[in-house]
Structure formats: C-alpha cells, structure tokens
Amino acid sequence: MDSNISPRLFALKQLATGYRRPDSRKAAKDIFSNFGRDVFSLHLMRDKLPKDVFERLCIIGRDGRTLAAHDADTVASVMKDWAIKQGATHYTHWFQPMTGITAEKHDSFLALAGDGTGISEFSGKNLIKGEPDASSFPSGGLRSTFEARGYTAWDPSSPAFVSRYGETVTLCIPTVFYSYTGESLDRKTPLLRSVTALSKQTVRLMNLIGCSDCESVEPQVGAEQEYFLVDRRLYSCRPDLVMSGRTLFGARAPKGQQMEDHYFAAIPKRILAFMNDVEQKLFALGVPVHTRHNEVAPSQYEVAPIFEPANVATDHNMLVMEVLVRTAEDHDLACLLHEKPFNCVNGSGKHNNWSLMDNTGRNLLDPGAQPWDNLPFLLILAAILRAIHLYSPIWRLGIVGAGNDHRLGANEAPPAIISACIGDNLEKVLEAIISGQDSSKGDVQEIAGTSYNLGVSSLPNISRDTADRNRTSPMAFTGNKFEFRALGSSQSMATINISLNTTVAKAIGDIVVKIEKLITEGLSGSEAAWKLLPKLFKEHQVAVFNGDNYSSDWVKEAAVRGLPNLKDSVQTLALYDTPEIIEVFESQGVLSKAEILARQHILLEDYIGRLLIEADLTLSLGRTSIFPTALKWQDKLYQAAKQAQKLVNENGPEASAWTEVRNLTNALLKSLKELETVIEVVKALEMSVLKKAEAARDQILPAMNKVRDLVDHLETLVDVTIWPLPTYADMFWSI
Ligand code: ADP
Ligand code: MG
User: Fold this and answer.
1) Among 241, 244, 461, 679, which residue has the least CB neighbours within 10 Å?
2) How far is the CA of 176 from the centre of ligand 1 (A)?
3) Are 444 and 425 within 8 A, CB to CB?
4) Which of helix, strand or coil describes residue 416?
5) Over the stretch 134-180, which tens digit does the pLDDT of each residue have?
6) Strands 150-154 and 129-130
7) Is the C-beta atom of 276 inside 6 A of ligand 1?
8) Alpha helices per DSSP H over 37-94
C-alpha cells in the first residue's frame, strides 16, 4: 500500500480504478428443473427407497413412532450414495446451537477395509445421532465443561442437502442438539415442540366445533430478509463493521434516505449480478426465494421466499443468511445482516409472515368472503388477541438482542409495545359481535368488494383490498396471514415462531376449556363457541390497535390499556423466569424450567458479550486511530493559525477552527478515559448475570454514545484525506 495515504483513500482509489467484475453465473434458463437439485428431497426418497421403508419414514413422529435401526441403515446408505454422486466427500450434522447461527463438524465417508483400502461408510447410526464435543457451545449452566456430552439427532422433517463451496461438497443433515441430561441446547427442538403444541390445541378446538376433518395443523412462515451490501474494500477498513457488525462511528452522509429514491429503485447492475448468484445457489438448495428489491436505506436490499412450514422455513432462512454472506465475498462485497449497521438511516428487520394451515390445506387465517360467519377464523383471531393481551412479554422475548434494541421503538420499526392491527373492517366485525348485532348487515361490507375508478378507461377494473396497510404495527393482518414485523434481520426465526406458536397454543387451550365448560351445560360445541366469542373479543380487544404505532399518543394509550412496553432486551429477559411465563412454556411442553433458566442466562451473557466487544472496539479505535488523526489535524490548524495571526489578528477564522478541534480532541480523550473506567467496572462486577447486563446497558451504552458524538463531530471537521475510516457517503454511494 502507498504509505502516504490512509487505508480509506487506498480503498477508494482501488474502487475508482475498477472493481473485479464478478464472474456471475448465467441466469438459469430453467429455474424449475434446477430447483432443489442439491436436496435429498421427499420425492427423491420416494424414488430411491424401498416402498415400505419410505412409508414408515413418512409417519415417524406420528403417535410416537420412531425409525427402526434397519430402516435407518437403508436410508443412510441411499443418502450416502446420492451425496457421493453429487461430489460429497464429507457429511455433517447441521444444527442451531444457542449462538444464533448454525454449527457443523465435518466427518468424511472414508473407512478402512481390512486390507487398508479406503471404502465409503455411512450407517444409520451416523445418520441418526452424532456427538459433537459440546463443551464450547453456550449451555447456560445446563452442562459444565467437564460434562461436555451433547448430542445431535436427525430431524427428518427438514430435508438433508449438499452444500457446495468451490470444489468442496458436504452432505448436511439438519439435526436437533441436546444435552446428556436430555435438555434442549438449541432452537430447533423447542420450535418443533411448539409446532406440535399448536397443532394439538388447534385440532382440539376445531374438532369441538364440528370440523372433524381437521387432524393436524402446521404454522406456515415466509420471512422477508433485509440486508445491506458494502464494497468489501471499504468494509475491510472498518474494524467496527468487521468485528461488531455495525458502525460505531460515522457522521450523517449528506445524502441518506431523505429523497425516498432507493426503495424499489432499479437494482444496480453489480447488485443484480450478486442477487442472481445468490438465487441460483438457493434454488439448488430448494429454498424458494421469490422476491428481490431495493429497500428504503441506501445500499439496503431484501429477499423473500415463498412461505413454507415453520421448521423448514427457519432452516431455509439460516441458509439464506449464510449464502448471502458467502456469496458477497465472491463479488467483492460484504453483506451486513446486523439490525442497525448505520445510524441516521433505517435498520434491517425480518418480517415473519405467519399463518395456520390444516391437513386439508385450509388456511385458518383466511377470513373468507363472510368473516362474520367464519367460526374457525374468528376463534383463531380471538386466540391471537388473547395471546397478545395475556402473554405478549413472551413475544418480546422472541426478539431480544443487543442489535435489535437499536431498532425497536425508533421511527422505522414497530415499537416494543406488542399489539395487532386487524384493519377497520375486521374491527367492525369484532364490534358487531361484541355488541350482539347482526354483523352481516350494516357497514361491515362497505369497503370490501368495491373497485377503484382511476379515471383512465384503458386500465382494467381494480378491486379494493379490505384494508389499507399499516406499516407501523408489530403484528399486522395482511389478508390471510399476520405479518410480525419486529424480528431483527440477523436473528433466527426460530425464537419468534416458538413464541407465536406457544402462546397461541396456550390461548387456544384456554378457549377450549371454556367451550368444554359450556358444553357440559348442554350447548353444542359451535353454540358454545358463538356464545363465548363476544366475551373473548370484548376482553381482548385491548390488543387491537389500527392507528399509528410510532406516535407518542400510542405509548400513553397502551399504558392505559395495560399493554407492556418492554423497551430493551435486559428488561425483557428479566421476566423470562417469572412463574407466569414458565407456566406457559411448561404447560405446552415447549421448554422446561431448567431450559428457560439456561436460555435466560445465555441471552443475558450474549447481550453483555456484544456490548463489551463494542465498547472495547470503541475504545481502541478511538485511542489508536481517531485520536491521533484529530491530533494531527489540530497541529496543522495550529500551524496555520500561528501563520495567520502573524499576518492578520488573533481571532481570525484559523484560530477558531483550531480551538474547535482542540476542544473536541480534549473532550474525546476525556470521554475515552471514562469509557475505559466503565468497561473495567463492568468487567470486574461479581454479581448475577442480570445485574451485570443492567450495568452494561446503563453504563457502557451511554459512555460509548458520548465518545461517538465527539468522533462524529470531529469527522465533519477533519481533513477527509487523513480520516482513517470510510465515511457513510463512501459506503452508501460507491456501488
Ligand atoms: P405482502 O405483499 O403482504 O408483503 P407477499 O405476498 O409479498 O405479501 O408475501 C410476503 C411474504 O409472506 C412472502 O414470504 C410470502 O411467501 C409470505 N406469505 C404469503 N402468504 C402467506 C401465508 N398464507 N402464510 C405465511 N406466509 C405467507
Ligand atoms: Mg418488506
């Protein structure tokens, strides 16, 4: 590198002289035949397995059925042959420990025959169970390091696949991860348990009201993934981005998102090549990505798939995040999944679209043409409102994280107050039911079914949706699904879906008990349900809010309604072990008390760990990079002021420029010292993990913000050619 210029300038120079054009794959002519090429799918198993083995495989899990050892051997052998044909040399149990990301340990198919020749081997035992050394994964006290046994077990409900990176092909088997004592150490196990709980309770309810064909129910989820892309050379000059995922410094760029000209704008060529590459890889992995577009902030984008069953959708979203990050490297880009990589522009979320489908293919959240007559729909709606009203801290627990705290409550993402927007029409239905009116009459149908007249005769007739969109609600009803909008972009979808499934299952269970009671009084199931509905809607209507969730009036109104406003992760996590919350998880068989306590501990430690990394980074960058730069510039200004004073007068502009930088530099030095002291204090605390997390939140965050304010101010004054970090403008507008 030219020693006379800063890394920032060097990177910009490289960028200006042309980036390596990505060797993007040609758009597949036929995405349909490429789709799922790398997946050991159900239809592949149907083709390749003996019919009886395939049939037994399809019903494992039902009524407690497990896979017999000889069947597992058959499946393993077929799976291995297929994977080797795809070029795989290794296999891995692919799991999701409490780190929030995926984990893998590769073993080759190699075994030695008696004469020393290499042969391939992969037994049913290898397929079903693995034992990674679990001592270094977060366990929250469920295991001590000297009792490090942890096991992975095959989850046949999510298909195995081969991952390809260059010439390296690996068979990946989705698995759960649990401890020697049988407690879950991952996010998949409770997700699967929550799906079972929701299915069980919903089937009970449906059967009670006469839907006897309802035998099982599965939540369906589609996640809209937002992300940022930054040129990799600039990214590499920002240790804060590399290590903490977000910029800890950075003054506002002259152009951010104020012109609203990035959202849905024509996708830049370089980005389109990247997206195409990502999609080809995901199609091969059977991930049905469907939508791509520019998002609101500069350099922000989104990808969304077609919805799938919650468990598969969660695994697929982990793959989406992995493929985005890895493919970015091939394109000299860095993909940022953090919730708030940049101040002053929107952060990134992951909208979790959620609905309930039963075994007959019926979507229980589809209101149909006459919602006021649709008893299953109304009951599920009532259960969702009940879940929000009584158990919303559990939803808030599903989205905790130091990164997401920067988003929630800011005027870009839903607030931390959980409520549902159901639209004016549905609310009218609710009100009619509550007041005992015949809701099929009156103004309920006023809007539905009408169409627009745009005054252009050549345009087709366009019918009006039953409700406008509400972009500010954390849980917005969007026609036949709810869109939960408060999940963070980097977060595993598992957590929020565990919360949704468990609390709705609990609420449905509560409703079932009430209906059963009325049945004992002589009513039929559906009579009992109709009788109950007005009471349910009346009790839980407080959870409905169709207005502007960003307004300060709503914060006051929500407080009057008694809806919790859990503003940060630490405050939320403090509630995890309260008896009411433990009861919900335990009653649905989703998490035991021991598992909850472990999770609470892990998530608090995660919070502290992230804050300390950010604080250490702020300190080291501030001291070793920003301060020396500011000092250099101060010196230059001093020389200039000295010169000028000789020539003009003591109070000339040169002198005041120097004074301003000098004062800021001195203040920076002082604030860095304060930050250092706070870091030491928090690190040395010998208290509960909760108290430590509170101290990190209350002491470290403000101390970091103080440093940041000074640095960002200095950035606007110091010679840009010596400023060490790429600026927001560099990163936003260089692609
Ligand atoms: P919207 O315009 O309301 O955002 P889209 O059709 O664009 O809706 O879908 C956004 C996401 O919601 C996609 O991932 C899509 O697959 C998913 N989605 C659509 N219908 C459902 C449903 N019934 N259940 C769950 N997710 C759904
Ligand atoms: Mg979106």
Assistant:
1) 461
2) 27
3) yes
4) coil
5) 777 888 877 654 566 788 999 998 999 999 988 899 999 999 999 88
6) antiparallel
7) no
8) 42-48, 51-58, 69-85
- Same domain, residue pair 438 and 574: yes
User: What is the rounded CA–CA span in Å between residue 261 and residue 275?
Assistant: 20
- In whole numbers, what is the pLDDT of the chain averaged over residues? 91
Query: For a substitution probing ligand 1, which of 221, 263, 353 has the most ligand atoms within 8 Å of its CB?
Result: 353
344-369 average pLDDT score: 96
CA–CA gap between residue 221 and residue 307 (Å, rounded):
5
Given 140, 173, 206, the domain boundary residue is 173
**Separation of 263 CA from ligand 2 center, angstroms?**
10
Task: Please state the atom number of ligand 1 nearest to the C-alpha of residue 353.
Answer: 26
Residue 597 sits at the vertex; the CA angle it makes with 592 and 598, to the nearest 5 degrees, is 95
Tell me, using a 6 A CB cutoff, whether residue 700 lines ligand 1.
Answer: no
Q: Are residues 507 and 365 in the same domain?
A: yes
Report CA(447)–ligand 2 centroid distance (Å): 25
Question: Is residue 219 lining ligand 1, measured as CB closer than 6 Å?
Answer: no
Which pair of structure tokens corresponds to residue 597?
Answer: 């306590």
Token look-up 């990589």 returns 341
- Of 537, 569, 591, which marks where a domain is finished? 591
Task: Give residues with Cβ within 8 angstroms of 298, minimum separation 6.
Answer: 253, 255, 256, 257, 262, 345, 732, 733
CA dist 384 and 356 (Å) reads 12
Residues 511 and 616 in one domain: no
Tokens of 308: 């799938």
Question: pLDDT tens digits for 461-499?
Answer: 666 666 667 778 999 999 999 999 999 999 999 999 999
Whole-model pTM: value is 0.94
355 lines ligand 1 (CB under 6 A): yes
Full residue range of the structural domain in which residue 428 is found? 194-444+468-591
Residues 586 and 642 in one domain: no
Q: Ligand 1 pocket test: pick from 282, 308, 384, 481 the residue with the most ligand atoms within 8 Å of its Cβ.
A: 481
User: Which region, left, alpha or beta, applies to residue 336 given φ > 0 means left and ψ of -120 to 50 means alpha?
Assistant: beta
Same domain membership, residue 620 and residue 509: no
- The answer, yes or no, to whether residue 86 has pLDDT greater than 60, is yes
Q: What gap in Å lies between CA 632 and CA 111, rounded to an integer?
A: 63
The answer to whether position 449 is within a domain reads no
Same domain, 584 and 618: no
Instruction: Specify whether the CB–CB gap between 428 and 422 falls below 8 A.
Output: no
| 551 part of a folded domain | yes
In a domain, 99, yes or no: yes
Pick the ligand that lies closest to the CA of residue 350: 2
**Domain containing residue 259: CATH number:** 3.30.590.10
What is the CA(330)–ligand 2 centre distance, in A? 26
Q: What is the pLDDT of residues 207-248, one digit of tens each?
A: 999 999 999 999 999 999 999 999 999 999 999 999 999 999
For residue 478, the ligand 1 atom closest to its alpha carbon is 3
> How many domains in the chain?
3
- Is 224 strand, coil or helix? strand
The CB of 307 under 6 Å from ligand 1? The reply is yes
Residues 574 and 714 in one domain: no
pLDDT single digits (tens) 648-696: 666 677 788 999 999 999 999 999 999 999 999 999 999 999 999 999 9
Classify residue 678 as left (phi > 0), alpha (psi -120 to 50) or beta.
Answer: alpha
CA-closest residue to ligand 1 atom 11: 222
Tokens of 191: 């997700």
pLDDT at 522 over 60: yes
Note whether residue 643 is domain-resident.
Answer: yes
Give the distance (Å) from ligand 1 centre to CA of residue 258: 28
Query: What is d(CA 296, CA 264) in angstroms, rounded to the nearest whole number?
Result: 8
368: pLDDT strictly greater than 80: yes
Amino acid at 539: E
Rounded to 5 degrees, φ, ψ at 349 are: -120, -175
Report CA(411)–ligand 2 centroid distance (Å): 16
